[in-house]
Input
Amino acid sequence: MVFTALILVLLWVFQYFFLQNYYRAAKERDLALTASRLAAEAGSSDIEDLVRETAYKNAINIRVVDAMGNQLYGENNMGSFSVLAQDKFGTQQFELIGRLEASDDNTYSEIIKNKHFGNKELVLITEMGGNEKDKQYLIIEASIDPLDSTTKIIREQLFYISIILFEMAFIVTIIISRRLSKPITELTDTAKQFGQGDYEISFDAKGYAEVEELSNVLEDAKDEIKKVTDLRKELIANVSHDLRTPLTMVKAYAEMIRDLSGDNPVKREEHLKVIIDESDRLSNLVNDLLAISRIESGKMELNKQSFSIKEKLEDCMTRYQLLIEQEGYDIQYIPDDDVTVTADMEKIDQVIYNFINNAINYSGDEKVIRLVQKNKPGAVRIEVTDNGQGISKELLPKVFDRYYRGEKYKRDVVGTGLGLSICKEILKKHDFAFGVTSTEGVGSTFWFEIPVEEKKHTKRSKDKEKDKHTEAEQREQ
Ligand code: ADP
Output
């Protein structure tokens, strides 16, 4: 609105203060140009025709007079409006010649008023041909009066333009405020509510595409924050539950040893085993929490080294020997050719350990777990497959999320929901591809791929290329 008002003020100011002067100056320039054009033709045979034609075309009065102001020839196209035409004795013309001679310029102009009609004329005089003794002058007279009617029309138009502009500005203001300001104010209010911890709000502002996009981004951010907050709450509940159970057990069994089984070596051993097992659970939990807090604060650093993948995986398997022998688990390592890889060995170990532990925890009664090494061009793929209950399609994308735990297992299996998210962070930090495939009721496969130094495989792939060529050649033949 202010902008429109400014434009209108400018228009009106120019209209009122400058139009008159501007018009006069333009008219004067015009007449001076006509005069100089005619003066240049002075002395030519058809000058009289030229004068007549010019006067006719421009609706002006042109006359050529001698030094005394007597008209030699000319053409009046202004009729009785012409002031000069009413001056029977040429006195005005004579006076004009005097004023031209008195001025230093070679043209002189002034505004004269028609006494009878009150209209104003612009008169311009300049020398034209003739000789020193017998000078001739060209006088051009033009009406400047139509200006008043023109300005009147322009002002009238300006008035309507002003009204239309104001209305348009008003409409545009309303549209902009509806589509831009209002949704943004709404978004701000919602964001404030959100900032105060109200997760029930929703960002659904409508308006320009940019506003809607902002709204969608905020909604997504809200969902993410809500998810993390929910999961965090759940984690605290889980962790406190998981901490309390082993602590209660540790306390109860320690008391039992003190009061009852202290002197009974068999019972005491049994009770001490429970205490040790529960302490292990506790330390695992605390380790997970420490690892995640280190990751969260961005302090995880990789200590990369080259090692043989086959040795590493065989080494991992030794840990499960007891489980295989005592609990009847069928855990096997299916190797491929040995490959040297570069990675943070300890952390990769942690990932494999986590995958296998999960497979054990969630494999149910099947107890069949495979640790598979598959060499691919440019990478070695490690897979941990179980024949457990599998993971549903909806939950599959969530398993690597922080604090996520499958509902079903909450009571039976001790876990924090952090294991896989730690794996994810480790693998991401390494820039290794990883993922999971799972079919409900059939089992799951957790995998990751370590890129290998080109040397070994470039030769292989070249050989393969060669094979392909020969194959193609043979086919052609
Ligand atoms: P947790 O400490 O609960 O094991 P993880 O991050 O290791 O946490 O795993 C997250 C969730 O993913 C588990 O609670 C479980 O529901 C699911 N999950 C992980 N591994 C498997 C698997 N091999 N089979 C089925 N579900 C699994």
